[in-house]
Design a protein that fits this description.
By secondary structure, the protein is α/β, with parallel strands linked by helices. The protein is built from eight helices and 16 strands. The strands form four sheets. A seven-stranded mixed beta sheet has the order 12-11-10-13-14-15-16, with helices on both faces. A five-stranded parallel beta sheet has the order 3-6-7-8-9, sandwiched between helices. β10, α5 and β11 form a beta-alpha-beta unit. α1 packs across α8 and α2 packs parallel to α3. The protein is globular.
Length: 328
């Protein structure tokens, strides 16, 4: 007689094997987000230790059985980028060697994404290197959000679920009850993202023509479209030093905009970025908690939680359901 198949072996949806036990682990990059995701899913956070040896090397210990389980590691590769990236790789390797059934890297913010092509001779394509490292370490899948360049998905040889924070931001904007809105793309590269926002809100689109003479520095040249007498919403994937964003906001105000808001998914906020934002012409800057952001009470920064969206994506992936349906 042929061997009896177990329940685990016969759980397939569209040819994809499903796993019985869901486990969520977290590195040190954004543990509060991982805990919020676990609360949304109604599961405990996986037991693990992610520390350092005396010389600074990363020391990881998975403190529970993960054999055959569907494991997710929540770890944005934000500042300190190299430390958090290495934590993610070592945790994935630990789970692989512990015989986890499937390992998904949940990377809300994908570091090194700006190096996605050769912009001059003899420079690396660092985002491709990072994709290779995640795959080689043992990840079977990646869940990420608002990549700086959508083509980075193609750098992976494993499936990538690319999520968008747009539904969360749009709900917040609608609930504010703003009228006479115009959506602004801070550069030509962000037109597709801004156009999607404008379409959802049913408003016009304005494009900023800018030049970047050197990294983290931008000059605004022209505004393509009309912002006079309107509430402007600048849409971008990230804010780093804040220089570009605040210059664009000032230029828009000079052109007659009533109020200027910004919606940037990832709040990198390097250097004096927070001070720049607080002193700028911006009325409010909307960020998500893909990267830990400690907003000051009464300040201009508003942080929205992506935990429900991330949790729903993890749940759907675990159950073999459509994730793209979240963004229809």
């Amino acid at each position: 007689m042929p061997p009896t198949k177990t329940k685990e072996e016969t759980r397939f949806v569209d040819g994809v094997k499903l796993f019985q036990h869901l486990k969520i682990f977290s590195g040190n990059a954004n543990r509060p987000l991982a805990e919020d995701i676990c609360r949304y899913l109604g599961v405990p956070c996986g037991e693990s230790h992610v520390g350092r040896f005396a010389d600074g090397e990363i020391n990881v210990q998975i403190d529970e059985n993960v054999r055959g389980c569907d494991c997710y590691v929540v770890q944005p590769t934000c500042r300190p980028v190299n430390e958090n990236l290495m934590e993610l790789l070592v945790m994935i390797d630990a789970l692989r060697r512990a015989s986890a059934g499937r390992i998904t890297a949940v990377v809300p913010y994908f570091g090194y994404a700006r190096a996605d092509r050769k912009t001059s001779p003899r420079v690396p394509i660092s985002s491709k290197l990072v994709a290779n490292l995640m795959t080689t370490s043992g990840a079977n899948r990646v869940i990420t959000m608002d990549l700086h360049a959508a083509q980075i998905q193609g750098f992976f040889d494993i499936p990538v679920d690319h999520l968008y924070a747009a539904p969360i931001v749009l709900d917040y904007i609608r609930n504010k009850g703003l009228k006479n809105i115009v959506v602004v793309s801070p550069d030509v590269g962000g037109v597709e993202r801004a156009r999607a926002f404008a379409k959802r809100l049913g408003v016009d689109l304005v494009i900023i023509d800018k030049r970047r003479p050197r990294p983290n520095e931008a000059s605004v040249y022209n505004i393509i479209g009309d912002v006079a007498g309107k509430n402007a919403l600048i849409v971008d994937d990230m804010v780093d030093t804040g220089g570009t964003l605040t210059k664009v906001a000032q230029k828009i105000r000079e052109q007659g905009a009533l109020k200027v808001y910004a919606a940037c998914v990832h709040g990198v906020l390097s250097g004096a970025a927070r001070d720049l934002v607080e002193k700028s012409a911006l009325e409010e800057m909307i960020l998500t908690d893909s990267i830990p952001v400690h907003s000051l009470e009464g300040g201009k920064i508003k942080v929205l939680s992506i935990a429900p969206l991330m949790g729903e994506a993890i749940s759907r992936n675990h159950q073999g359901k459509s994730i793209s349906a979240l963004f229809v």
